Amino acid sequence: MERPGPPPIRVALTNSAGRGVFATRRIASGDLMHTASPVVCYPSLATLHSVCYFCLRRLPNATAAPTASYCSDECMEHAEAFHEVEAKADWLAHDEHCRTQGLKYPLLVKRLACMVISGNASADCLDILQPAPLSSGMISEMERGFDLLRDAFIKADIGDEQIAFLNKQWYIGLLARIRINAFRVELAGGSYEDLLSLAAASVATEASVGNAVYMLPSFYNHDCDPNAHIIWLENASARLKALRDIDPGEELRICYIDASLDRDARRAILFEGFGFHCNCGRCLSGD
Ligand SMILES: C[S@@+](CC[C@H](N)C(=O)[O-])C[C@H]1O[C@@H](n2cnc3c(N)ncnc32)[C@H](O)[C@@H]1O
């Protein structure tokens, strides 16, 4: 059962991993600590026509329609303003670039840019999140995506003032933040009660329906032996649950990767993907 009242957590500085999320009171194993709606989300290209274009809920009937499909009138209304902006432009070149290069994050930037233009989001809404360190090679690879995004809006006659925020610095800064903070949304299926009875909800990779960035979940640090877990049941709305009994003041950490990998593999993925040397107890113990 979801608990009423404020979530039992706060964001504060850790000793060695920047900001983190801490318990403000005792939390019991299996408790749902809080939920979070995405600031921005986007279906993966493979599920584009089989999930709701707004909330990523699976649609009962997959369509081959080139237009966006929604699971409800409510989702369609939420998406109306940014989808109207998106529908003005031709995304063929941009989306083909993402498809051929296997890129998913520029699609989140495209959605956010449409939200900013339509007045659904502010251009600086993700500035508070930690950016990934980027090499000059990574930055030059991002430039093509920036050109394609900007070109699409310019060709669609979106006014200069409306896209004044859309410069290279904004685009690269946003991708740097998305790189560290985006979650792959994997719908678990089954009921919430089923999931609570599992020590850790493990979900198949093919359950992935898209990617999303949240505010509060972005402050959870990583641990290879986590005490918290993020799950998705029916759509991109995230649920943070405790995997163990947690004491007041204890830091809550989730696992960003497959915890069953060996130590070297975990550390390599965390360094290459997120740019840090993991300082969790399991890594430090050599496990
Ligand atoms: C999603 S953010 C988590 C919040 C972040 N600490 C902040 O201040 O915004 C991920 C970043 O936190 C830091 N971090 C997370 N888990 C860590 C760990 N186990 N060891 C060292 N640094 C970690 C790394 O800098 C990583 O890139």
From TrEMBL:
InterPro entries: H3K4_H4K5_MeTrfase (IPR050869), SET_dom (IPR001214), SET_dom_sf (IPR046341)
Gene3D superfamilies per record: 1.10.220.160, 6.10.140.2220, SET domain
Pfam family for this entry, one: SET
Recorded GO CC terms: nucleus
Chain ranges of the SET domain: 7-257
Protein's name in the database: SET domain-containing protein
Source organism per UniProt: Punica granatum (Pomegranate)
